[in-house]
Amino acid sequence: MLKKFVCVFAFAAMAVLSAAASYNVTFYDPVVVNGTTLKPGDYKLEIKENTAIIKQGKVMAQAPVKIENSDKKFQTNTVRLDGTQVDEIRLGGTHTRLIFDKESS
C-alpha cells in the first residue's frame, strides 16, 4: 500500500512540476514580442520550459526567454522595453525575471 501511495504521489508531483507557470501582464502601449505586435491590454503569460507564451483571446505571441532569479522579490509585474520590443518581464510576487532573446526577433 505504501509503495502504491509513493508512486501516486511521485506522479502527481511530476505533473505539477511540468505544468506551465501562468501570470497576468498588462501592456499600456503597443509592444512587439518576437515579431508579433500586441495591442495595449491585459494578457495571460505562460512559461513553458524556456518559452514565454503571451495570449489574449486568439492573439498569441511566443518567444524564447532566459529565466533568471533575482536576489530581491519583485513587488509588481514590470515590463522593460527596448523601443517597442519587449526586453524583459519581471514577475510580481516572485524572484523571477524573463529575459527575451533578441536573436529570435
Provide a descriptive summary of the structure in words.
- The chain is built from one helix and nine strands.
- It has one helix spanning 2-18, and strands at 21-27, 31-33, 36-38, 41-48, 51-56, 59-69, 78-82, 85-90, 96-100.
- By secondary structure, the chain is an alpha+beta fold.
What keywords describe this structure?
single chain; alpha+beta; two-stranded antiparallel ribbon; 1 helix; 16% helix; disordered N terminus
Secondary-structure blueprint:
Elements: H1 2-18, E1 21-27, E2 31-33, E3 36-38, E4 41-48, E5 51-56, E6 59-69, E7 78-82, E8 85-90, E9 96-100
Antiparallel strand pairs: 1-4, 2-3, 4-5, 5-6, 6-9, 7-8, 8-9
Short summary:
With 105 residues, the protein is of the alpha+beta class. It has one helix and nine strands.
Structural classification = alpha+beta
Mean model confidence by pLDDT: 85
Q: What share of residues are in beta strands? A: over 45%
- Estimate the global geometry from the Cα principal axes: globular
Please report the total strand number as a whole number. 9
Oligomer type = single chain
Low-confidence stretches: 2-18
Task: Report the biggest beta sheet as strand number plus sense, adding barrel if it closes.
Answer: 7 strands, antiparallel
Reading the helices and strands in chain order gives: HEEEEEEEEE
Euclidean distance between termini CA atoms: 53 Å
- What's the total helix number? 1
**Percent of residues in helices:** 10-25%
**C-alpha Rg (nearest Å):** 16 Å
* Biggest β-sheet: strands ordered side by side in the sheet: 1-4-5-6-9-8-7
